[in-house]
Design brief:
This protein folds into three domains: about 60 residues; about 80 residues, no CATH class; about 40 residues, no CATH class. Helix content is about 55%, strand content about 10%. It is flat.
């Protein structure tokens, strides 16, 4: 804890000071610029990234509801811009680069206008090379798009809720008794599913 950023109130709990509030808002500003919580913690001297996250959440809680709606709108616009940029990156052709040079592979021989193989001064056929495509950047952008879409869905709340079947203890006990009766009937030689006559 940095000196002068918080103090104990009359109830013994820590209360935020003007300095701690400013630092929380600075943390939120840095987060808005895309810095990770670890980077924010290092820059603002939080003890670890969890404290930086708490500071950002406190700053967001300070925003009045109207400003919060505006902040949400701004975040959605940023997400849309990031999706657009990553989409273009995903569709772009990328070539494999190794040690600063584009990697090529032989795709045949150079030919003249008549389709005849061309030869160099030593009489050797001149190879024709093509760039080796690299799917890595496109795949990375596709993963980023997926994460951005998931984040967008959470902000809008349009992810379908998970359905759960709820049973009471009484229903479970009754079903267990039914199963025990069926097992007892099978043990007595009755075919499964046939009720035992009373």
């Amino acid at each position: 804890m940095t000196a002068g950023t918080s103090a104990r109130g009359g109830n013994g709990r820590f209360t935020r000071t003007a300095a701690s509030i400013r630092r929380d808002h600075e943390a939120a500003e840095l987060r808005g610029q895309g810095l990770s919580y670890a980077a924010i913690a290092a820059r603002l001297k939080f003890s670890h990234k969890g404290k930086a996250h708490e500071a950002v959440m406190r700053a967001f809680a300070d925003i009045p509801s109207e400003e919060s709606a505006q902040a949400k709108k701004l975040d959605l616009e940023r997400i849309d811009r990031l999706i657009e940029w990553n989409w273009a990156t995903m569709l772009r052709e990328h070539v494999t680069v190794s040690h600063g040079k584009v990697v090529g592979r032989q795709a045949g021989w150079q030919r003249d206008d008549d389709g005849q193989i061309m030869y160099d001064g030593d009489g050797a056929p001149i190879p024709l090379y093509e760039d080796v495509p690299d799917d890595g950047p496109g795949q990375a952008s596709a993963r980023e798009i997926r994460m951005l879409l998931e984040r967008r869905a959470k902000m809008f709340g349009y992810d379908a809720p998970v359905r759960h079947e709820v049973r009471t203890i009484g229903e479970i006990d009754a079903r267990l008794l039914e199963l025990a009766d069926e097992v007892a009937g099978v043990d007595a030689g009755d075919p499964p599913g046939v009720p035992v006559p009373s």
